[in-house]
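Give me structure tokens for this 313-residue protein.
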Amino acid sequence: MLNYIIKRLIQLIPVLIGVSIVVFLMIYLIPGDAAEIIGGPAATADEVANIRIKLGLDRPMHEQYLRYMSGVLKGDLGFSFQTGQPVSEAIKTRYVNTFKLAVFSAVVAAIIGVCAGIIAAVKQNSWFDYLCMSVATLGISAPTFWIGLMLIIVFCVKFKIFTISGFTGQIWTKEGLKGMVLPAVTLGFNSAAMIARMTRSSVLEIIHQDYIHTARAKGLSEKIVVLKHALKNSLIPIVTVIGVNFGSLLGGTVVVESVFAINGIGRLMVQAINARDFPMVQGAVLIVATTFVLVNLITDIIYAAIDPRISYK
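Here you go.
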């Protein structure tokens, strides 16, 4: 297992280099000049040229990339074109909020999705099954920003249960937890729907196996048959969906943080893209990509923990 983890960590290097190259190229293909945006509409051509020289934007593209990567290897993500603040510091303060929101959403989505999927599978073709799958279809097809706006209209404007911008990231306090609910539900709704559908199909596939009928014939209670025998052997695809969805949750914060005015890394990226703040965008994407790859690694390790047939050599 240790060798496998080391091997996967080494494989991270080319993946992250590939991500950095793609992001670097995409940013430079975006129309607009960062020096002109920083200088403002009143800046003269000489002032814009001086800004370009100061930021190193007059250098060839490959030279700019190599200089950026040499800094990354030393732990330096550069400085923001817009504020002059070190990128690592700006990301650190915002990333905490995004990570808390993504983890909270993932936990809520996993609990709701797995429970709903199990009940729908056990009560196949019942009214709960039809209702659950209908809501899951809505959750998968509905845009995240629309869900967020609908929740704001209903719970903030109509019933005044929550505040629109009450997110503090402090989930251990009543007010903090209250401010976390709507963003987490908005972010996790799509994920919960996918987990519910996957759980239902996985449990349905297992629940009709011969050994499940044998367990029931031995007189075991339905609760033990479902949770201990059916669910345990259905976990691999469910864990896969949860792990992949966590990466989607990190990416989805771009919309949710903009809707609920949360100072997270997603909102930071939107602001940085609008300002052509290249170091900030590159640093934020690199951190999100690293988190996503590490979550996939943890998912693979969980495979071995829940299924003894899987071994990593």
